[in-house]
Amino acid sequence: MKQEVSKTMVELRDAVPGIVYDLRYASTNNFMHRLMYPAGTRQTFLRKPAAEALNNVQEELAKKGMGLKIFDAYRPYSVTVKFWDLIRDERFVAHPRNGSGHNRGIAVDLTIIMLKTGQELNMGTGFDNFSDTAHQGFSKLPEAVLQNRQLLRNLMEQNGFKPYADEWWHYSWPSAVKFEILDIEFKKLAKDL
To answer: Which of 7, 53, 117, 150 is 20 to 30 Å from 108 by CA-CA measure?
Structure first.
């Protein structure tokens, strides 16, 4: 039986020309301070409708000399289990009993960069900051930071994504229950495309 087109996984660089990767869990530059993905992971994926919507965001930003940088997108379920075994706190990691939007290929962690310099816009905190300052509704920040966050949020919402209240960088495609949890290794996913 042929898979529904809406459930197809696509590599983000193929779907979103010019997108930049900083895949934090493929390095030790993350809150775990360890590799969570296999060394050398250089690709990431989303379901086709989410990737197409992300391309629309990228095109809008390009008109302003800006673009997207991706910290994380698809995450194999086995990695969510690894996170849980190490942290066991649902404020910071998804409980394996539910899986996550990342496991379904519909969640993305991202920021905005300036295309000429590659410099990230100031969002007030870095990625994977677990303080209140990182919350979407946190307003005790300089006006420029609030505007940067609002720019990201507006473009993501206009293109169908939903924000996660506790993380300014995390957005999900709606209707998570329509997408099954996946536990496919990055290399196998790349090979199957």
So the answer is: 117
Question: pLDDT digit string (tens) for 19-55?
Answer: 999 999 999 999 999 999 998 899 999 999 999 999 9
pTM here? Answer: 0.95
Contact assessment for residue 70 and residue 108, using Cβ atoms and an 8 Å cutoff: yes
Residues composing the chain? 193
Question: How many CB atoms lie under 10 A from the CB of residue 144?
Answer: 11
Topology of the domain comprising 5-192:
Muramoyl-pentapeptide Carboxypeptidase; domain 2 (3.30.1380)
The pLDDT value given to residue 193: 73
Helical residues (DSSP H) of 41-99, grouped into ranges: 48-62, 77-87
Taking a C-beta distance cutoff of 8 angstroms, is the pair 98, 118 a contact? Answer: no
